[in-house]
Amino acid sequence: MSNWDDWADWNDQPMRGDWHKISDIQQDIISKDEDSKTYLTLYYIYAREDALLQSQLEKHLSLLQRWDLISNWYSREIVAGTKWDTQFDMHLEEASIILLLISSDFLASDYSYNTEIQRTLERHRQGKARVVPIILRPCDWRATPFAYLQPLPRNARAVTTWDSLDAAFADITRSIRLICRELQQLSATYILQSSHKPSQTYQFDKVFVKSGTPTVTFVEPIDFEALKQSLAQPGRGVVIEGPSGVGKTTAVEKAIEFLADLEKNFNLLSANKRRPSRKKFIALSARNPDHRRRLQTLRQWHKGTVIVDDFHRLDPVLREDLIDYLKYLADTNSTSRKLVIVGIPRTGQTLVDTSFDLSTRIDVFPFGHVSDEIMFQMVGKGELALNILFDRKADIIIAANGSLNIAQFLCFNLCQIAKIVETCDQSQIVPYDFDTAQSSVIKDLSRKFGESVRRFAAMGGPRDSTSLLLLEELINSEDGFVSVPSFKNKRPEIAQFLERFITEGWMERLYHEYPECEQHFFFDHTKQILVIDDPQLAFYLKQLRISMLARDAGKIAKLTQRKVFISYSHENDEWLKRLRVHLKLIEREGIIDLWDETKIAAGMQWRGAILEAMRTSKVAVLLISAEFLASDFIVEHELPTLLTQAASGGTIILPVIVSPCLFHRTKLSNFKPINPPDKPLSLLSKPKQDQILVGVAETIMQHLTNIEIKKKGNTERTQ
User: Fold this and answer.
1) Residue 38 banded pLDDT, cuts 50, 70, 90
2) Is 152 among the domain residues?
């Protein structure tokens, strides 16, 4: 089998429909002859300090090299004796895909920022290359000239913050593979589209839909055949569970329509012409009050197939009644009535937990995030229907991150921006501007969700961060699902405040004060689970910053005026600079007020300024080295003040061991250091050093959160 045949079988999913034609044309375009084989060239731009991470990424991308899809060149491979600028320009100008490996060191490089980036972005704007920022380490990349590009890993979560670096690089590789696939097919697709004579005209909003069930762009999910078989079995209950936006309801509706059409055709061919055709279905949503009332009398009027969507939103009594009804239908082997339950992840297990003997009477179909292959096919069907070509289809799929609904939404907006009204007579390329498309979508979604999100964030008052922590957990979850008991175990220091969130009925109060919130945030008081079951809300939240939410909710006062003091020896200036880079983002967002000796202005009494800063600091970070411990001023003035502050509970001390020293022989050894004394930063690799410095920032934020929680608790006890 050829390399291209292997590639066409990507994800073990065969190409369907018209896309077979694209694959066939592509095989003619990409020559199998070794001398004329066409490659996609890949170019890395990265800081020298990130060489190890770059090397690990290259290993993950090596599979693409084996398939002859890419060939590598990066700055460290320049042959000795050649002129740097000439060699650099040649490879950069020839590169198909340019990876910007972003870190604080990358951003600190004037050469990379001013020279490489500008030329790279120009090639991207001209459509001569695909530029992909890869966030290696946490840094303030959103304020850069390339912030408008689609970043990787998906959701822009920095590589070094993942529990597994391999998982992060695998996510990046999957996206790069998608981009390679698109670029390899681009010219072939355009040839097909250019010669394509549309046989039918579609309105663009019927092809890509912002809500409802798509028809033109429907793609069968992996378990579609099994789902149809289950729906055809008399009496047996069907449960479809999964996160929002992955096509659960669409799949079951399409499967039922298929079975209805099949039965209709059978009746036409059958001698028994009087056999009645199966009704398609009745879809009821637990979000609709009228539908909930109809479900209360379901046994009286039920005929055909009834789909109950958002099952988790029904009240417990009605849920239990429907569970009993599921068992009844299965036990009576009903041929005229079918009940389908659609809900959030773990719905099937919840049903079985409620009634254990239900497990043998239902079929459960878990739907996860949609594969890139299915997303690719969905967008491709829309392109063929409208006779258009998205020039950066891979970016759409990456941004949608497994949500068919969001992919539909983005395609809809892109067509709108490009003024595509209906099927084009002549093929037209639709440009994908990540920043414009995202901004347009966020603007729409802000009108829909902005007030609900603001009111959710405001719960608990201006000095309580519980609602912000819950929002942050929702944003970081894969399926928009947070179990409060599990969150308590994960964050025991805030368990008592999560308990108040439940016992004081914060969500019930929110629903009463602003009923619209109930449509956006679902809270099951019995199970103590918080769910966002609207894919557009999940997408919207992932584009926001917690600090901005806090400001909009009137809580910014509790996030500001948090002084963090850094104590260091001047011999360790470089460590101070690196730490400041990692703290810059939370300083800019107003989460901390960072202070070190560089803040002392000319003419100030420097000793008094330092002592005053120490006395008013909530957190003190000590960059400990042999030079630090040998400093008379630090030992005689700074440390006594800080230790006194710590003893009175006024300051939290965070030692960071930057180089080998006798830390264990000092009073500071009573404080747990960020890194083990036998593993000082100077003896670690660059990525490990950055992981620890990121840990400093995270520890500071955690301690400041705890301080606010304690303040709140003390205030309540005095009331």
Assistant:
1) low
2) yes
